[in-house]
What we know:
Blueprint: H1 4-10, E1 16-24, H2 30-38, E2 42-46, E3 53-61, E4 64-70, H3 82-94, E5 98-104, H4 108-121, E6 125-130, H5 132-137, E7 140-142, H6 144-151, E8 154-157, H7 166-183, H8 193-210, H9 219-227, H10 231-240, H11 242-263, H12 267-287, E9 288-290, H13 299-307, H14 312-353, H15 358-375, H16 378-394, H17 396-410, H18 417-426, H19 432-438, H20 445-454, H21 464-474, H22 479-503, H23 525-557, H24 565-581, H25 586-604, H26 606-618, H27 625-633, H28 640-651, H29 662-668, H30 674-686, H31 691-701, H32 704-731
Helix pairs in contact: 1-7, 4-12, 6-12, 8-9, 8-11, 10-11, 14-15, 14-16, 14-22, 15-23, 15-28, 16-23, 17-18, 18-19, 19-31, 20-22, 21-22, 21-29, 21-30, 23-28, 24-25, 25-26, 26-27, 27-28, 30-32, 31-32
Amino acid sequence: xxxxxxxxxxxxxxxxxxxxxxxxxxxxxxxxxxxxxxxxxxxxxxxxxxxxxxxxxxxxxxxxxxxxxxxxxxxxxxxxxxxxxxxxxxxxxxxxxxxxxxxxxxxxxxxxxxxxxxxxxxxxxxxxxxxxxxxxxxxxxxxxxxxxxxxxxxxxxxxxxxxxxxxxxxxxxxxxxxxxxxxxxxxxxxxxxxxxxxxxxxxxxxxxxxxxxxxxxxxxxxxxxxxxxxxxxxxxxxxxxxxxxxxxxxxxxxxxxxxxxxxxxxxxxxxxxxxxxxxxxxxxxxxxxxxxxxxxxxxxxxxxxxxxxxxxxxxxxxxxxxxxxxxxxxxxxxxxxxxxxxxxxxxxxxxxxxxxxxxxxxxxxxxxxxxxxxxxxxxxxxxxxxxxxxxxxxxxxxxxxxxxxxxxxxxxxxxxxxxxxxxxxxxxxxxxxxxxxxxxxxxxxxxxxxxxxxxxxxxxxxxxxxxxxxxxxxxxxxxxxxxxxxxxxxxxxxxxxxxxxxxxxxxxxxxxxxxxxxxxxxxxxxxxxxxxxxxxxxxxxxxxxxxxxxxxxxxxxxxxxxxxxxxxxxxxxxxxxxxxxxxxxxxxxxxxxxxxxxxxxxxxxxxxxxxxxxxxxxxxxxxxxxxxxxxxxxxxxxxxxxxxxxxxxxxxxxxxxxxxxxxxxxxxxxxxxxxxxxxxxxxxxxxxxxxxxxxxxxxxxxxxxxxxxxxxxxxxxxxxxxxxxxxxxxxxxx
Length: 734
């Protein structure tokens, strides 16, 4: 690979764009550095054809616009996981001008493994030696100049969380791009010993002679990947020329047999050993020096003795979740009330300036009461995401996964499933879609399937407003306690269902779990702000696009067909008779007629007929026909439950004296009581995932039948739980 294309871009004048990729191991501070460099000038999307998140941003230096791409965190360039495939494919196909390799200075030996792979690949590389402050606190001294001289690349010390060294890093990157374009650089060549080197040379020559996969790769690198049994490259080779693949396999077979017989190992293991041997030889040349006593406990180790303790840790974890809800509701109460007031004022404004008709009904019931009900919870969502970002950036969520591993194994899940559950909203405010995608890290197909089928039970950001609405309406004095209990119930339900699935349709043995615990760090304000805003903006954007569109559609099916003319005339005659009577309670009587007409119109609509048809079954769980309409809309997106309830109780006002608050309307509505709210919370918690999640489940599972299974099984399970609780509560007189 070369940087000639990027060099040309550098010569095209002011603000020419040059692509630079940021790569590194997980937990090396790569995304923190990316945020420090790009700030608000970043965009989040997906890589083409896959659901792995893609972050891009820009940095301007010397009239050059550097286009930065934050690659997924990866330990190597061997395609074992989708993240590794995505990172490698971007480098191979997009050909960035430079790869900035972010290296954790406290784990230099392990992090340099990826650096060597970039250099063997022939990619222009510049290194950001990050977390230098943490390394210094641990008594680790690194001779940066010596390491740069030995590797032959530019190395810049950085402290990403404080933004230290970012300007020097970008200047070094720009200089490296210019140098790579001017004279290029030779790929790193490592000796892999007397057994592998001759075979590697033979395979490289054969690959070069047949021009096999050399359009994108060096022959030596292709040979090395075949020796490492790289599945992706082998598949590409089979498609390109299966005969050459067979010939390469014939060359490798004697080597594999010899290593198995003599050393009881495989070529890929020997290659890894020699890479680490090369790294250790670098360390032995005075690059690394430990000035402090290794035996002393570091701050993270001391904290883990308490926070990750076998018995104390889980109790503290529950206290942290409790504290998160207390913080969220206490801080968001005032801004939520203010925002509700804004939408109430907006509704009054429309009501006072527009004549009765379809346009007024659409604006009031379809948009303001529908979408406004969802947007009213933006402050709550924002503060919830802020708390989650703090726990995530500090390193505490990794400890949560570590502690819950023992519990998960009891229920037939893998320890890595914990992070998928947390991402989905296991503490609060996540999303089932990235949770489903996070299940890719599981190697066992059955554990992966059990995980992606149960992560939708978590309390995602779409369910939180529904829970907050019902808790605020019926349990206002105990909001934090109720949300805490809702979290525990969602975990219990997911684990019990996982145990059921692992004991029946997807049974199989468990696999071991190993994970890295990153050091504790104090999150930066900038990082918290970026992470919080990204997630909150996704919620707002969804409310302003998807939820708006669905709300308008639902308003339409809750409005049409209109009441027959003779029925409307009958209500008009009733109003005329009441007006002529001049009774003392005329206003209240007229309001009651208006209410009955609105309710009749809603019942007569398409949605009303659907909700009424389901009421014969849903009443066993305490749900009336209006609630049925909302729950049907929730199959598309859970936020729609709120917007539909807002529209339904606006089109068919249940109380002429009620305030514009949906929570107040529900608390006054006939048939609603705390038990009804609990059953609706349980149903929303467990029933069918939203449409996007179902698509992701089908894609990740490789079959639409698992997507259909999640819709049917989850809905039946949720309805069964709601019926059981409602009937038991009714018998107890609740």
